[in-house]
Design a protein that fits this description.
Number of helices of chain A: 13
Largest interface: A-B, 66 and 66 residues
Strand content of chain A: 15-25%
Distance between the termini of chain A: 38 Å
Strand order of the largest sheet of chain A: 8-7-6-9-12-17-18
Oligomer: homodimer
CATH superfamily of the largest domain in chain A: Translation initiation factor eif-2b, domain 2
């Protein structure tokens, strides 16, 4: 999407034909800078230190990491080393392993002197696939926004509330939950987004608000507490979020607080949609609320906040009393009964075992 | 309640017999200091600049402001001037006007030379009344906690979630929502409190966590997003909040985000109680959701956070992107249907017009 009026992706090949450029996401929303990755160690560091984040973008960065590794040394030993180096960065990221396994399968049978060119080709393909999937999700979601827009009085915006960052910065382009919003905006539909700040890590503030602002999409940042009130008073037409993991029955595991917004949407008869590439559906899980393990993250995310002081210094600050204990569950699970629909690259499915199986018969059949 | 092991109130007469001491609440939770008020202007400044906050404590500070004013000059003109000076500090605070009107009614008929001593007597009485009301609320709420404790396995705490600060720091002592908690703790019941940080102003972090910690009550600070997840997983036995204004039918207007917790409590069959002095019931309002006006506060509360940097400096920091618009509704209304009961100084009422009228017939009759 646009940054300062110029269309960008989150990762791209430089004009030299081999080095890779990424956006430095650690300094958002206070600065915009790019970083050059020149070898597999650069890529591993970019993932581990969260210069890139978001499952699809992590996968894409790992893909280019394999290509850069093959450029330096295309032996079997180097291939194995690159796999291990990249996999160790964030071992729980599903997309990372998926991308690495795919590269291992493609590259291993090839003679060493064909590996580099094929790795680059395959990394570009993986990125383009991500863009295509998200664009298709956007088209399906756009139809929903369009339907709402038709019922609105002229000049009044379609108000969409989103939580966390399921934006293009988490993917190669378009994002998931943001994709329908960008499509609607680009088509001239009057959309306005309520951006939950998304404590504790404030991805709404630092990423979603920034990317919407850069692309020119109307929005307001609100605290996570505000959405229920806005819904009660007719100021939200639709809730649209992403998901980190979706169970076969349509339960949605997303950033902590999503469940509260789904409850408020239901209480006020507002549609609650979730946008996702089908790769995030786990067909082996049939009860997300009971069975998806929820990561308990460091309490310092609750006690400390990143910001910019009046003198322009970006730093962290403590906001809780010394000695007060902290708890920090990072995700929650929204039960399928609260989900109006799952927007995937194959269309919109009801959040039920039957509807998901009908849309993805080849995957549902395997594990259920 | 206790501070560093010593029982305190939020406002008291000094040993000199005339000057008034308050706790400086602007520097919480990073420092604890008290301030001496020596005249009506000191009191007005303490209210206007939020050295004191919370409706009951504002009323008590205004009461001592009248006493200090009468000490300096007990003429009719001085009485009128003190009333105006104090009333202008926070014109929308109901308790402030209520306290001032009460003093005007008591002092005006008296000869000038009797006003000072009566004003001091009356200020002490007003403080003691607040303490008594909150203590009684605590006794009624304690019975609820006790009932839950009886059903818990030995050694497991009663887990109570609270939002914002309805604590003793907002009153003269005990607080409202915290009063049952302190009573339970003091009786040796194993209680543990989940403290919502309560964005945007973080009163949960800066006040509730601080006062619970000082009194030795077990607690964890959580982000406002976390409560729903905790309730889904059996980690909350009861939600207990305060209210700024309650309509005759039992709708509860409290800090933004309260409604979301009430929805989650209902979805998980967890009791949601609200503690309040009956002075906050507005018997002229019969539909709180539709009719209670919600204050839209400055966006800088959303964009900026107060904290302490690593070098020990307490300052504010910007956390949102430059130029991103902000919205900041300060309160929301929880519909009566989600409220398990209203804990008042006359007992626990169902959140219905009939139950409130039965408990307060003399007030309900007047305006309904």
């Amino acid at each position: 999407m646009n940054v300062n009026g110029v269309p960008m992706r989150t990762i791209w090949l430089n004009d030299d034909g081999w080095s890779v450029e990424i956006i430095d996401q650690t300094i958002f929303p206070f600065s915009f800078e790019t970083l050059t990755l020149r070898n597999v160690e650069d890529c591993a560091r970019a993932i581990a230190d969260m210069y890139v984040r978001g499952a699809p973008l992590i996968g894409a960065t790992a893909a280019y990491g394999m290509a850069l590794a093959m450029r330096d040394d295309s032996s079997d030993a180097a291939l194995a080393h690159a796999y291990e180096t990249l996999h160790a960065t964030r071992p729980t990221a599903i997309n990372l392993k998926w991308a690495l396994d795919r590269f291992k399968a493609v590259l291993t049978p090839l003679p060493a002197d064909e590996r580099m060119i094929n790795a680059y080709k395959h990394a570009a393909l993986l990125c383009d696939e991500d863009v295509a999937v998200n664009s298709t999700i956007g088209d399906y979601g756009l139809a929903l926004i369009n339907d709402i827009a038709k019922d609105k009085a002229p000049g009044t915006p379609v108000n969409i509330l989103t939580h966390c960052n399921a934006g293009w910065l988490a993917t190669v382009d378009w994002g998931t939950a943001t994709s329908p919003i960008y499509k609607a905006h680009d088509m001239g539909i009057n959309v306005h987004v309520w951006v939950d700040e998304t404590r504790p890590r404030n991805q709404g503030n630092s990423l979603t608000a920034w990317e919407l602002g850069q692309h020119g999409v109307a929005h307001h940042v609100i605290v996570d507490n505000a959405g229920g009130h806005l819904m009660q008073h007719g100021q939200v037409d639709m809730v649209l979020t992403g998901t980190d993991r979706t169970s076969a029955n349509g339960d949605v595991c997303n950033k902590i607080g999503t469940y509260l917004k789904a409850l408020a949407a239901r209480d006020n008869n507002i549609p609650f949609y979730v946008a996702l590439p089908s790769s995030t559906i786990d067909f082996s899980l049939h009860d997300g609320v009971a069975n998806i393990p929820i990561e308990e993250r460091s309490g310092t995310e609750v006690s400390h906040v990143l910001g910019r002081t009046a003198d322009g210094k970006v730093q962290t600050m403590q906001i809780t009393p010394d000695g007060s204990p902290l708890a920090n569950p990072a995700f929650d699970v929204t039960p399928a009964r609260l989900v109006s629909g799952l927007i995937t690259e194959r269309g919109i499915a009801a959040a039920t075992t039957e509807a998901l199986a009908a849309l993805f018969p080849e995957r549902a059949g395997k594990t259920s």
